[in-house]
């Protein structure tokens, strides 16, 4: 078989999924009546937000047409893996790149090279993949193809003849791109005579087939149905229930051979036994494949069930969800205010937000989330939750994570961006010019980045700035734990570790925000921020009595009882999203207020 395996990589919103649509359409993989925009974005959340969250594999059948010097048409099997563009989902991209031999590097003709264009492009070059440079959106009236081409030449060293011009929307130039894919990207090694070995790059859970592993077969051929398979990393074993490929629906076949991308239904019902990056083989003797670099979570959020009886349902949902997102991690945690739950690790704020929405939407789990925090080190011991840190102001040996930021921005916004980063304790490193845009490099504490840095960066740059970041090291910090007291009782889920010079201002903003979101009770409530035994800010929530059966000064009494029942049910539904701290009910908005304040 003439096989080509490739990915599409680009910055967010540069048109990866739209180009993938045209490839599906032109190759006849999806018929016109079943075609819809961003077809490979199958998650409801992806379609709602208009971004790609998950990598998506699909098999295309393409025939290279005859031309001068080539008499016969040649059929090819193309395995495409579409990838996300946001920095929080870069682990999805790295897994896709390990399963292919080449990548289409896409640049928006109206925006040029952005942060993730550079990050993903360099990651692909590190894995020795062949890059095909493509300028997309050439049909737009404000397209600046010459500038985009110049940036690709200056940044990656491409020649002008290599760069293809396409429109993912209209299909212009896509036929030339398909031809470049089959003629330039090298074929995979098809070592079918060796013992079976496959790399798991993704997986999901099916209630009938168990864990379904998405694999790139590196050597040999998959065992026949019902024959045993083993997982070299976890030492687990299963059986081949079914093999097949993606169109993008699952299509069963008689087996997969070296060089192919597809799926293996394992029959395993315990999600933890099948891990991304593990090697599937026919027995335990072969050497495992290199797999993937272990990712470390950067942002931590506590997730708790609204109803304590749903703890085990939440635990099961998290185990199944981790199959589809190996960058997500969780450990059990207990909070005095919220009860039993889990401390969950994420790669960034968008990642945390997306996971919470997917858990609610796909697994029907009602969650309460605490404010995001970063992981600290206290005398080289990890601190992932603010409640783990001792109270007081003189904490010795506390270290916080620092990151290296690369910010791409038009030259006109250099001043406001510099001002913003300096306000966030950033340290300037250097600046590089790319035509009308610049790349500014900074060092900055991760805790400053996870507050509202990305929103403010977009605001001061009128939406033009983009950023990429990577962890540098841990450095000493003068920080304290700010506790929030509601009605005299500490709410441990609202405790936050804050840089000490900013602690008082932070505490003041917190209590003001909580006064807005907390429902008034039948008694006066004191809302306080404290460092150790010192109160640094206070607001008072006045008493208020609300009877849902009262409309103005009249009691709802006439007519059928269903009128009263509707109002009481509405109130009951609202109370379900509350947590009791002593005698005060706290809504979910309060736990999100730290993030937004």
Automatic annotation (TrEMBL):
PROSITE patterns referenced in this protein's UniProt entry, alphabetically:
G_TR_1, G_TR_2
Does this UniProt record's set of keywords contain Ion transport? no
- Which named protein is this? Elongation factor 4
For this chain, the family text in UniProt reads: Belongs to the GTP-binding elongation factor family. LepA subfamily. Belongs to the TRAFAC class translation factor GTPase superfamily. Classic translation factor GTPase family. LepA subfamily.
> Which gene specifies this protein's sequence?
lepA
Topology term for the membrane: Peripheral membrane protein
Top EC class, one word: hydrolase
Instruction: Tell me where it mainly resides.
Output: membrane
Q: Which reaction does it catalyse?
A: GTP + H2O = GDP + phosphate + H(+)
Which branch of life, at top level?
Bacteria
| Function in brief | Required for accurate and efficient protein synthesis under certain stress conditions. May act as a fidelity factor of the translation reaction, by catalyzing a one-codon backward translocation of tRNAs on improperly translocated ribosomes. Back-translocation proceeds from a post-translocation (POST) complex to a pre-translocation (PRE) complex, thus giving elongation factor G a second chance to translocate the tRNAs correctly. Binds to ribosomes in a GTP-dependent manner.
The question of whether Chaperone is a record keyword is answered with no
* Alphabetized UniProt keyword annotations: Cell membrane, Elongation factor, GTP-binding, Hydrolase, Membrane, Nucleotide-binding, Protein biosynthesis
One Pfam annotation reads GTP_EFTU
Task: Name the SMART domains on file.
Answer: EFG_C
A GO molecular-function term, please? GTP binding
- The record's EC number reads 3.6.5.n1
């Amino acid at each position: 078989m003439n096989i080509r395996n490739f990915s599409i990589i680009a910055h967010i919103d540069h048109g990866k999924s739209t180009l993938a649509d045209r490839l599906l359409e032109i190759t006849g993989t999806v018929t016109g009546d079943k075609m819809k925009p961003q077809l490979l974005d199958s998650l409801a959340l992806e379609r709602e937000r208009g971004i790609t969250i998950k990598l998506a594999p699909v098999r295309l059948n393409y025939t290279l047409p005859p031309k001068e010097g080539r008499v016969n048409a040649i059929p090819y099997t193309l395995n495409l893996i579409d990838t996300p563009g946001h920095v929080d989902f870069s682990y999805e991209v790295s897994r896709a790149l390990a399963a292919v031999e080449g990548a289409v590097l896409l640049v928006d003709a109206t925006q040029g090279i952005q942060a993730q264009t550079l990050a993903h492009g360099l990651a692909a070059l590190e894995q020795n993949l062949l890059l095909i440079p493509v300028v997309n959106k050439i049909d737009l009236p404000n397209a600046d193809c010459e500038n985009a081409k110049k940036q690709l030449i200056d940044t990656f060293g491409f020649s002008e003849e290599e760069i293809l011009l396409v429109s993912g929307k209209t299909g212009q130039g896509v036929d030339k791109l398909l031809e470049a894919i089959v003629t330039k990207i090298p074929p995979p090694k098809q070592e079918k005579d060796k013992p079976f070995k496959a790399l798991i790059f993704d997986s999901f859970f099916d209630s009938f087939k168990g864990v379904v592993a998405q694999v790139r077969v590196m050597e040999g051929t998959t065992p026949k149905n019902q024959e045993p398979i083993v997982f070299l990393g976890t030492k687990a074993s299963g059986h081949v229930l079914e093999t097949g490929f993606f169109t993008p629906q699952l299509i069963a076949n008689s087996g997969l051979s070296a060089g192919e991308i597809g799926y293996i239904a394992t029959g395993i019902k315990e999600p933890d036994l099948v891990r991304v990056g593990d090697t599937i083989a026919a027995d335990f003797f072969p050497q495992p494949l290199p797999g993937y670099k272990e990712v470390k979570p950067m942002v931590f959020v506590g997730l708790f069930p609204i109803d304590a009886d749903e703890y085990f349902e939440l635990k099961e949902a998290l185990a199944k969800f981790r199959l589809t997102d190996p960058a997500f991690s969780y450990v059990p945690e207990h909070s005095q205010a919220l009860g039993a739950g889990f401390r969950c690790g994420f790669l960034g704020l968008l990642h945390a937000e997306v996971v919470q929405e997917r858990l609610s939407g796909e697994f029907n789990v009602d969650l309460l989330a605490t404010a995001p925090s970063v992981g600290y080190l206290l005398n080289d011991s990890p601190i992932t939750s603010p409640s783990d840190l001792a109270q007081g102001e003189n904490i010795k040996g506390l270290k916080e994570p620092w990151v290296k930021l690369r910010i791409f921005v038009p030259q006109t916004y250099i001043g406001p961006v510099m001002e913003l980063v300096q306000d966030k304790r950033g340290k300037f490193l250097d600046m590089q010019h790319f035509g009308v845009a610049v790349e500014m490099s900074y060092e900055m504490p991760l805790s400053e980045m996870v507050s509202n840095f990305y929103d403010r960066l977009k605001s001061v740059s009128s939406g033009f700035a983009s950023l990429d970041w990577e962890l540098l090291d841990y450095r000493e910090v003068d920080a304290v734990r700010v506790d929030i007291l509601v009605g005299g009782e500490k709410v441990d889920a609202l405790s936050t570790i804050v840089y000490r010079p900013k602690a008082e201002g932070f505490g003041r903003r917190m209590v003001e925000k909580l006064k807005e979101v907390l429902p008034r009770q039948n008694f006066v409530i004191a809302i306080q921020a404290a460092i150790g035994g010192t109160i640094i800010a206070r607001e008072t929530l006045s008493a208020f009595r609300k009877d849902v059966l009262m409309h103005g000064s009249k009691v709802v009494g006439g007519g059928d009882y269903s009128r009263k029942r509707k109002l009481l049910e509405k109130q009951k539904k609202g109370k379900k999203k509350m947590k009791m701290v002593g005698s005060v009910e706290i809504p979910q908005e309060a736990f999100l207020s730290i993030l937004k304040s």
